[in-house]
Description:
Layout: E1 2-11, E2 14-24, E3 29-34, H1 40-47, E4 55-60, E5 63-64, H2 70-76, E6 77-80, H3 92-97, H4 101-104, H5 112-124, H6 140-154, E7 158-162, H7 170-187, E8 190-194, H8 198-204, E9 207-212, E10 215-220, H9 222-225, H10 228-235, E11 239-243, E12 250-254
Parallel strand pairs: 3-8, 3-9, 6-7, 7-8
Antiparallel strand pairs: 1-2, 1-4, 4-5, 9-10, 11-12
Helix pairs in contact: 5-6
Amino acid sequence: xxxxxxxxxxRASRTILSIPHLSLPSDQVCVVLGHNGSxxxxxxxxxxxQLVPDQGEVRLNxxxxxxxxxxxxxxxxxYLPQGLPSAAGLSVRELICMGRYPWHGAFGRFTKQxxxxxxxxxxxxxxxxxxHQLIDxxxxxxxxxAWVAMLLTQQSPVLLLxxxxxxxxxxxxxxxxxxxxxxxxxxxxGMIIVLHDINLASRFADHILAMRQGQxxxxxxxxxxxxxERLEAMYGVPMSLIDHPSNHxxxxxxx
Length: 255
């Protein structure tokens, strides 16, 4: 469980995140929604200890994350930022294998188990045929999937992903969310995922946190969130809902 207490982040005399108290499940698929500039990325950076709030503290399972070393933090939390870091000169497989470093260090001996974990992650995201190509030679979507595989190889109990579907076409968006949901069900790994797509969140999330103007606007189940009045209040446009033809989720439409 993540707990945020008295969190405040300010930039240029403007408060961009203000959360008196918030508890987020760290063992479910939790999706963070909101407008651009609503504080989603600031929130997830705070959870990953990539940004230290001006005020307050973030705890994971009652432990202040600022008390952890970088290696200890990486063993507990895997983080994929919105802007992918440079991986110039690395092959896809070399990048993915870097996910094992928190467990044995950059100069530790790479075991058969490490190789097996990396191979499984490569297969899971469907990029085995790119394994020996350079990262820089891949398309944006393929590069995104390689980074997700690196995160899976890290095997941290909690994964934080900031808009992991942004560079993917619609079929790969659903494949990735289905994979993350499956991993959660099979391994218990928690997923906190920033998305923009309401319907993608409704389909795959167990828990939704909606951000607005740096504050928590709503949190609860997808069924509780997917109400016309609540969506209209959140996004400022008339919304209607229809039943999905093949599952129990709702589909939101702009009127």
